[in-house]
Amino acid sequence: MRLVHLGLGNFFRAHQAWYTANASNAAEWGIAAFTGRSTKRSRARVAALRSQDGLYTLITRAADGDRFEVVRSIARIHLGDEHAAWLAYLADPQVQVVTTTITEAGYLRGPDGGLDVDRAEVTTDIEALRADAMAPVSTAPAKLVAGFAARRLAGAGPLTVVPCDNLPGNGAAVAQVISDLAERVDPELLRWIRDNVLYATTMVDRITPEPTPEDFAAVEAATGVRDRAAIVTEPFTEWVISGEFAADRPRWEDAGAIFTTDVAPFENRKLWMLNGAHSLLAYAGSIRGHVTVADAMRDPTCLRWLDEWWVASSRHLSLPAAENAAYRAALIERFANPRMQHRLDQIAWDGSLKLPIRVLPTVRNELAAGALTSGVVRPLAAWVCHVRGSGAKMTDARAEDFLPFAGGPLPGAVRLLLRALDPELAENEAVVAAVIAEARDLGQL
Ligand SMILES: NC(=O)c1ccc[n+]([C@@H]2O[C@H](COP(=O)([O-])OP(=O)(O)OC[C@H]3O[C@@H](n4cnc5c(N)ncnc54)[C@H](O)[C@@H]3O)[C@@H](O)[C@H]2O)c1
Ligand SMILES: O=P(O)(O)OC[C@@H](O)[C@@H](O)[C@H](O)[C@H](O)CO
């Protein structure tokens, strides 16, 4: 094992595990994969993958047919609470890379981007690590810090963390939460981390929905194998990576990954145009009764909303306009793939953490340009409606911070809900008025 992954979910199997399997030096890079948590869903995944020795079928689903491929890069499979195994891998000098896909919520960032030290689970983990730097812990930042403590003790040398979640500047973001946590645990350990751990920054892109029983049946029909760990993804895939690596790494570039000095222009385009549009459809499209992205793409009203969103978001990107137009054309084709069942309620999860990343930059940019239109605030208004019970069912890691303000007359609720996303924006009367008007248009009284 030379690579450890935290957050064994759908996306990792369609993306990083696939790139690693297709690297020219793949034979040197077995992955030990851990789920982020130990939920019932995680246990089912672990059981399915273990029963297949880590092998699984990747279904690449184009509009005109499926391609089936067995991915062979996962060598060990663990539940998130198998702490002794986690420490043992991180203490092994052969292990030189840690990748993560733990969702935006998993980094436990507060409003300033640093570690949210007011959260109970963070406090509990800090106390545990103060007593014993390798104690069992539950949060991802604490697991990484405990792993680094084990690595330091073993003298196993430097390594690189490669975050693969939809967070802008994800390398700096994870470095910050690690440093915030380690400084509260042990200054010596913090020093070691600063000297030995490097963080890559990545933009990741490949639409990967939750697989369905029909997907498992498709694998069985085509290959004769009953594969309960199969994953469906789209043909399009992108991985843009920047940053130095502390030691060795898989040659992901041989599988198509792009190494660059600045991920930000690609990251902004992806987060604003793809993920922003996804969130728009998740909230506004589900209010119109749509269940999947492809359903919404058959609705001319949703297409008009997307058009308005893309005009607004793309004009603030630094990449050439012609490239952005091509990206947008490709998005229309990707979203409309009629054979992908990408559920809007899956995309809608954790909106309070996603909207500040995917939607608010465009709202601020358009506000600064004096161009605040209904098309720009629609994702925010639709999220307000979603929180007040319209469209897709709400699931949000921060629900307790804003749900108490969601009821009552719309104007007051809009102001308080916006405050939960961005206090400054909530003070802007033009924004508040535009969101109220658009929420009314979407059916709120
Ligand atoms: N699915 C996609 O199309 C896609 C594409 C690009 C990027 N991503 C990124 O990957 C992330 C995961 O997507 P997925 O489709 O694999 O989801 P998933 O639900 O299949 O897997 C999520 C993984 O994260 C872990 N996790 C969830 N909450 C956590 C928490 N609070 N702390 C620690 N671990 C936690 C889970 O245990 C699981 O291992 C997304 O949130 C996104 O940032 C996904
Ligand atoms: O994965 P999430 O929950 O951050 O966001 C849901 C979708 O917008 C996302 O998964 C996209 O499909 C993906 O980012 C495409 O690369």
UniProtKB/TrEMBL annotation:
Please identify the protein, giving its name as recorded: Fructuronate reductase
Task: Cite the Mannitol dehydrogenase N-terminal domain residue spans from the record.
Answer: 1-253
Which UniProt keywords are present, listed alphabetically?
Oxidoreductase
**Source organism of the structure:** Demequina lutea
GO MF annotation terms:
fructuronate reductase activity; mannitol-1-phosphate 5-dehydrogenase activity
Q: Domain of life, per the record?
A: Bacteria
Instruction: Outline the extent of the Mannitol dehydrogenase C-terminal domain.
Output: 262-401
Q: Where are the transmembrane segments?
A: none
Which reaction is recorded as catalysed by this protein? D-mannitol 1-phosphate + NAD(+) = beta-D-fructose 6-phosphate + NADH + H(+)
State the Pfam families in the record. Answer: Mannitol_dh, Mannitol_dh_C
* Keyword tRNA-binding attributed: no
EC numbers on record = 1.1.1.57
